[in-house]
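Side project, low priority. Logging it here so it doesn't get lost.
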Amino acid sequence: MDNQTEVSKFILLGLSSLQGLQQFLFMLFSLLYLSSLLGNVAIVTVVICEPRLRIPMYLFLCNLSCLDIFYSTVTIPKMLAGFLWGHQGISYTGCLSQLHFFHFLGSSEALLLAVMAYDRFVAICHPLRYSLIMSPRACLLLAAAAWVTGFLHALMHTVMTSWLHFCGPNHIHHFFCDTKPLVRLACNSNQLNLRLLSIITGSMAIGPFVFILFSYLYIFSFLRLKVQSRQGRRKSFSTCISHLTVVALLYVPVIFNYVPPSSGSSPRQDMIATLMYNVVTSVLNPLIYTLRNAEVKRALKRRLFSRQLLVQKMFCLAACVG
């Protein structure tokens, strides 16, 4: 940390200053956050408890759900507090911590989606070699690489931002401490920070995005030319479409937010794009993967709605009432 930093606290201005909207926005984002937590916790629980789902595809899905839980928790609780009590103050250290974990979890998720695309490519195009290529050790290394790379990417932004000198103003035009609105408040030059944001973070988004698109172009060509079974083709297409839906929801707003020159974007546009890949995707990921995946739906029904479990719940409820 820079010992000469004069500003010790920042003020998050949030999504809207209109008092009439605060209660509505609080209810809306509370429901979205609760849906995200319940959906992603359900997926993690089912993958851990269901032996049939202990394969690479669902292990990566479990990682994705963990990232979504932490990713939304970095920003939404502070935003909800702002709806209740107005503009929220956040300390300098807290601001850098929020910035770090936001980029850490977001870039890890972007890389993990590329790993999941590679897993689908191997499973569909090289099924006989799948167990050899996607061995438990390889899966662990790929998942760890996504998390570690995301951490190092976030660490770069955190260190570079901590070198800036903040002497006022201290009002951040965002609902959390993102890099772009924060470095704009610096008293010294922030051009290096903004260039790194566009080049490094932009590359972290565009690189995996292009890799995923080429992977699925190859997969679709392979399915059309090589797979004769209509049922097998339909099942593979269903899995791929689910993944591509998540990819579009995450990468398109990220690229819109970070790749263009920073001077050409407005705070409101940045906030809308951030809401898409930070809040909306964490809510939709569990729905997309469960509604379009028969195995996950069956496992959820067995674990959440089995007779034995319902009987246990009834006994527990009766004991509590008694």
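Brief comment: The longest helix spans residues 191-226.
Revisit when time allows.
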